[in-house]
Amino acid sequence: MAVPRRRIIDALEGLFPPHLALAGDATGLQVGTAGGEVERVLCTLDLTLEVAEEARERGAGLVVSHHAVVFRPLPHLRTDTPAGRILAALVRADVTVYVPHTALDVVAGGGNDDLAARLGLGAARPLEETGRAEAVLLLAPRPPGDVDTLERSLFAAGAARVEVVGQHVHVVAPRRSSGAVAARLQLLEGGAPPRVVPLLSDAAPHGIGRVGELPRAMPLAALGQAVKTALGAPAVRLVARDPAAPVTTVAVLAGDGRRYVDAAAAAGAEVLVTGDVDHHTALRARALGLALIDAGHWATERRAPELVAEGLRAALSDEPVEVLVSGVSTQPFVHL
Length: 336
Prior knowledge:
The protein contains twelve helices and 17 strands. It is of the alpha/beta class and 336 residues long. The protein folds into three domains: 123 residues, NIF3 (NGG1p interacting factor 3)-like (Udp-n-acetylmuramoylalanyl-d-glutamate--2,6- Diaminopimelate Ligase, Chain: A, domain 1, 3-Layer(aba) Sandwich), CATH 3.40.1390.30; 68 residues, Alpha-Beta Plaits, CATH 3.30.70; 88 residues, Udp-n-acetylmuramoylalanyl-d-glutamate--2,6- Diaminopimelate Ligase, Chain: A, domain 1 (3-Layer(aba) Sandwich), CATH 3.40.1390.30. The strands form four sheets. A six-stranded mixed beta sheet has the order 7-12-14-15-16-13, with helices on both faces. The relative contact order is 0.16.
């Protein structure tokens, strides 16, 4: 059995709304068609030629790639170039490609929330606000089952925040998706529709990156080691005047965080955990009194395919589709 590609793309856009992506970002349907049906979806961080071949071999008719396969306009489509070979392999195998990218980074429960949670940051808030959405609060008895499954299901329906309070569940949802979230909550709870309460502030912020507090102060060098372990990074680089200085307020930005150094300093962070730090960015951070922990682009975003797969499995739980995570590592560096 198979599922329409359009159904899967609709689920992706519900999980990672395109309007949340940063301006100018290359997101959405990039290769192939929304028509037809597929039996398997493959989730990956990067779409290399090896991943394209993996999709063909595993029978995946749709690939969800966190990073765009076409990021800048192509001057030509030649099959003797790396980009051309990848695109030709995808088209020949009738593989469609969808890219969520920064929509996954911004959305509640997405890449940056996951990164903050893995580092144990409490009260995480957006590092830089990118927009606001009208929101409502949904109140209902707590449905049966574990909290993780409940959260995944409600996030897949469009919830922005889920909190279990005793025997009740409080859900904040953008007004545009509140109907779908209310229906999912009623289905899970098996009772009456949830109570809908307009928020006193009807403009709930969303944004890129996160800032939060460690449970207790720790030296920068020790935090660097903790980041390396938590992210499975082969190495980390530390930019700090005093590696022994204690820190409690930490900013995180999955992927390339170079342009968010000023935002992290302005937000009161003592250190920014990110990737792709260059020499001049490091000097800029030192001048601002901000420490940096560069864990690499790959390590800070390596969980993206799993997050997409978990969301899709919950959103498509009633559909006969298999959601796979790529087994190809796209870490390009060898650390000596």
